[in-house]
Amino acid sequence: MTGRANSIIIVGGGASGVVLAAHLLKSSNPDLRVTLIEKRPHFGQGIAYSTLLSAHVLNVSAAGMSAYADDPGNFWRWLLERGLASQDRAPVYAPRSVYARYLGELLDDLETREQQTGRLRLIREESLSITPTASGVEVALANGTSVVAHLAVLATGHDEEPAQGHAVRMGSEADTALDPDRSVMVLGTGLSMVDAFLALEQRGHRGDIIAVSRRGLLPSPHRKGNPIKLDVADIPLGTQLSYFVGWFRDLIKENQKAGIDWRDVVDGLRPFNQKIWQNWPASAKRRFVEHTKAWWDIHRHRMAPEVYARVTEAVQSGRIRLVAGRVVDIAKGGEFTVQVQSRHTQRLETFEVARIYDCFGIVRDISTSSNSVVRSLVDRGLARPDPLRIGLDVSANCEIIAGDGTVSAKILAVGPLTRGTFFEIDAIPDIRVQCARLSKQLLG
Questions:
Q1: How far apart are CA 415 and CA 272, in angstroms?
Q2: What is the rounded CA–CA span in Å between residue 364 and residue 42?
Q3: What confidence tens digit (pLDDT) does each residue in 377-417 have?
Q4: Strand ranges (E), 89-201
């Protein structure tokens, strides 16, 4: 899509939506109108940044968390100006609640600046559907009203699957008071499990935590380093997955022989991750998601060092037990009797736990989304899942692709919803670049 759109509705006022609005409003176009719609009480939070627990820190250092693609030091300066960080303590992994405050203040500043121009409108309401019209789009709201514009951009972020079976989500209404000395089970061993452990600690929970996933792997810690320099010509684009994995392992080994940390190799590849994904054949993408992604995630999506220290101490002391396997049976009595089949030995092990927490995280089939707008678009054929069903199918220009394969000029998407096309699009450093490009594309 090219050309100028004067009125834009952003559906979703979490981090992705606020970042997109900020980039759009950098335009000097006096006729621009941006409407940001969010169902939560506060803008800029969403799932990721709504936590109030100080131990829930960013998984990216403050230096990489600016909302602006062309001003990478913005968040770091914001922290320094408020005395929330100091130059001699870098890198800093700020609490996520602090980042929510940053996004909130950024939006407040935009609202104040645009008060006289009327270029920014904030609506606190749930969006139900988006319907293309002859001249643009109409977004229906839960209060019975609607908003119209030239186009709409979906920025609804991550959508969590409902907790499965007997499991509950951490912090949900079902997560009631618990005997602090009883054992609990956590399904998943990734960053969501880490969050659950930190929340349980905050509550004073003392019982054992059995964390179960297919491979039983913990995310790695960050370390200060310098990403290696790569050129796109160095990377074997479009190959089958086995060849690419072999190349990447050899690259890590070569650099480790030279004293370079593997993290610097992983981070050196980051600028090319989306291009790598987009050049893989469909078979390589599917194999990666099914077999390789778990290994990639623990190296690519890392923990702050101080959090890693707390988690590993808990593992070493036996407080957290990591189990590689799968749950094959859950029986409910006074407590839960859970049978887990070991990945390595195939033997069954039985655990007695007071509660089971589902920390498998985000929706793995977008057609089952709990988001009303996303579900409505798919149900009406105005959008379709990507081939892997991990997001909506979108073009390289973020345009929604309908069920019949037509590309929409009026409905677009940014952020995690576009994972099928861009894959590495969950973190702010990637989202802000996507939003900057889309803003330029939309405003001409």
A1: 17
A2: 26
A3: 999 999 999 999 999 999 999 999 999 999 999 999 999 99
A4: 120-124, 127-132, 137-141, 146-149, 151-154, 184-187
